[in-house]
Each structure stands twice: as structure tokens, then as C-alpha cells.
């Protein structure tokens, strides 16, 4: 999938060629893709290529449930009849959801709004 923010467009693309060389300074690699005819697309436009490289399961929670205290990321969870604060480490953001890498387990109840706990 290719995303061209300038046009507000997302489109499927075919990868035609992947360069075996990676620039060690920029950590970039040349990938040539084929796109369908797109109205308004001009040479030199910048875009993003998203290519699935495998699958893994991830624990996702609402971005709005994560609080930042200095450099720490915390969420409130409901456990044993009370509200607890839990330090977490997050990963990628997917729209309104964010991946939790550590500090939280599947099945735990995350409090999105403190009023819900009462």
C-alpha cells in the first residue's frame, strides 16, 4: 500500500524492484513500485510504502487511555475492585489504538475514563 499525503490518497502498488543496498546513514533502501494512473500525481511527490513483512499478535489499547508523566507512560487498570496505575511501554500507533509492548496483559481491564471505575 502506498500513501501520498499531499494528495490525501492511499493506493495499492506493485513492487517491481528492491535494491539490495541499504544506505547506512539514512537507513533507507531504493524500492521501485508500479502505481495505477492517479490524477494529480506529479514526479517528485513524497509517499510512504507500507509492506507487510510478517504477522504478529499485538495488544492494542485506546491511545486516549495512555497518560504521560514525564517520560513515563502509564495506564489505569481495574484490578481486585480498585483502580491501579500501571507503567507500560508502547510501540506503534494504529489510528486510535496503540500497541502495548510491556506492562499490561491481554484480559486486563484498562480504564479509559476514571468515571467508569465508580
Automatic annotation (TrEMBL):
One of its GO terms (molecular function) is efflux transmembrane transporter activity. GO terms for cellular component: efflux pump complex. InterPro entries: MdtA-like_C. Residues 58-114 form the Multidrug resistance protein MdtA-like C-terminal permuted SH3 domain. This is Efflux RND transporter periplasmic adaptor subunit. It comes from the Bacteria. It holds the Pfam family RND-MFP_C.
